[in-house]
Design brief:
- The protein is α+β, with helices and mostly antiparallel strands.
- It has eleven helices and 19 strands.
- The strands form six sheets. Strands 5, 6, 7, 10, 11 and 12 form a six-stranded antiparallel beta sheet that branches.
- The structure holds flavin-adenine dinucleotide.
Length: 405
């Protein structure tokens, strides 16, 4: 069962509202709610909903979805399928000699097929227990495995795209089930084709992880992928690039996330959120130079210029001279922009039950009984402050249903 959903006792026989089905705990009733728990039931329910011509939406753990107080006038398919299957184990470099033994064992891989409804963090815990590295820095992210490719989940220097091989996909446009390779999903920072308009159902994901068991027998324990995030390296007392025991890395990530209110914890008043509510803005290098010197920024790789089509009647045998300067992009810190536009942790509008998390400026929280409208008002206020201060329009990270910003 997704981690946001209360048990049936808590619902006391009433119809679940989105406030019961999402981690932000806001939102009205769905017109229809289906909860298929096997792969076949999921396919059947989805095809039936699509065939009806009604509106439809998919829901996993509801940790990246915020729905309006009016609810949703259509069918909600809540994905509850479970299961992890080992497809095969492969030695990626079968030709390695004894001298390369350490590299060879490090190169062993295990491939998994994971059902869409499998809770993500249960999967991470399972892989860490087995000594399979590749997901450990993604510990503690709430939600389902099927939703993970939608925004290419990422944290502490790892992204799903580092381990994703393919998805098993039921395409809404064609009704056809097909395997889509990760390379075709345009996975980027908190985005993919699934977030950008390719509509359909992720039935399962295929992952390739590093099987450290053989290595562990040599080194005395299963090690993580190289630590790629300075704050995490600091917490572990190692350098970026070092490898540490898998379990230690998971524990450290969970502790760091807990301190920021970024795990679901019923004892934490900041827990009712959708995680980061805004993505870090990506702007041109020229625009980033208008930011104050203190604003954190991370240069991204050079973006390719779009192809230019020249109409035949304008083509004289010589192409236009290409602009030699690549488009340089820079990622800014949304948290820094919010804090420096005068909004601090714990901020709330007068009389509102929606607040900025007391631990992390990027999270909008429901402090108890907030409406989706109150969340929307706070989000718009934050956007407005940052825009008027820095000229940047922050974009929401969660899927907003019936809620305009
Ligand atoms: C406390 C907290 C911390 C978080 N930290 C992080 C973080 O560190 N990094 C990060 O990347 N995200 C983070 N998130 C966001 C969220 O956990 C992830 O985006 C997660 O993958 C959402 O999973 P879900 O099942 O809850 O998705 P839902 O909210 O149920 O759905 C999200 C979107 O995916 C679609 N969808 C769901 N299931 C499927 C499916 N099977 N097939 C196709 N589409 C589907 C839905 O229609 C919706 O559009 C955090 C959220 C919270 C609440």
């Amino acid at each position: 069962m997704p981690d946001s959903v209360p048990d049936s006792g808590a619902l006391a026989g009433r119809e679940p509202r989105f406030a019961d089905l999402t981690t932000m705990r806001v939102g009205g009733l769905p017109a229809r709610l289906l909860s298929p728990a096997t792969e076949q039931e999921l396919v059947d329910a989805t095809l039936t909903a699509w065939g009806s011509g009604d509106e439809w939406m998919l829901l996993g753990g509801g940790s990246n979805t915020v729905v309006s107080d009016d609810g949703f006038d259509g069918t909600v398919i809540r994905v509850l399928t479970r299961g992890v299957t080992v497809l095969d184990a492969v030695a990626a470099d079968a030709t390695a000699g004894a001298a390369e033994a350490a590299d060879a064992v490090a190169a062993e891989r295990v491939r998994l097929r994971v059902q869409a409804g499998e809770p993500w963090d249960d999967l991470v815990a399972h892989t860490v227990e087995r000594g399979w590295s590749g997901l450990e820095a993604l510990s503690g992210i709430p939600g389902s495995t099927g939703a993970a490719p939608v925004q290419n989940i990422g944290a502490y220097g790892q992204e799903l795209s580092d381990s994703l091989l393919a998805i098993d996909f039921l395409d809404y446009e064609t009704g056809v089930r097909r395997r889509i390779e990760a390379a075709e999903l345009e996975l980027g920072y908190r985005t993919s084709v699934l977030k950008q308009g390719l509509r359909g159902l992720v039935l399962a994901v295929e992952l390739e992880l590093h099987d450290t068991q053989a290595e562990a027998s040599v080194l005395g324990g299963a090690l993580s992928r190289p630590v790629a995030y300075p704050q995490l390296a600091g917490a572990l007392g190692v350098q970026v690039g070092d490898r540490v025991p898998l379990g230690a890395l998971r524990a450290s990530v969970l502790a760091l996330r807990g301190a920021k209110g970024m795990v679901l914890d019923p004892g934490d008043p900041d827990t009712h959120s959708a995680g980061s509510f805004f993505t870090n803005p990506i702007v041109s290098l020229a625009f980033s130079r208008t930011m104050p010197d203190a604003a954190p920024r991370w240069p991204l790789g050079d973006a390719e210029l779009p192809d230019r089509v020249i109409p035949l009647d304008e083509y004289y045998g010589v192409g236009p001279v290409a602009d030699p300067s690549p488009v340089r992009l820079v990622k800014l810190s949304a948290a820094w922009l919010i804090e420096n536009s005068g909004i601090s942790r714990g901020f709330r509008l007068p009389g509102s039950r929606a607040a900025i998390s007391s631990k992390h400026t990027l999270a909008l929280t429901n402090t108890g009984g907030a409406t989706a409208d109150e969340i929307g008002q706070l989000a718009r206020f934050v956007q407005g402050r940052v825009q008027s201060e820095f000229g940047v329009i922050l974009q929401p990270e969660p899927m907003l249903v019936g809620l305009g910003l």
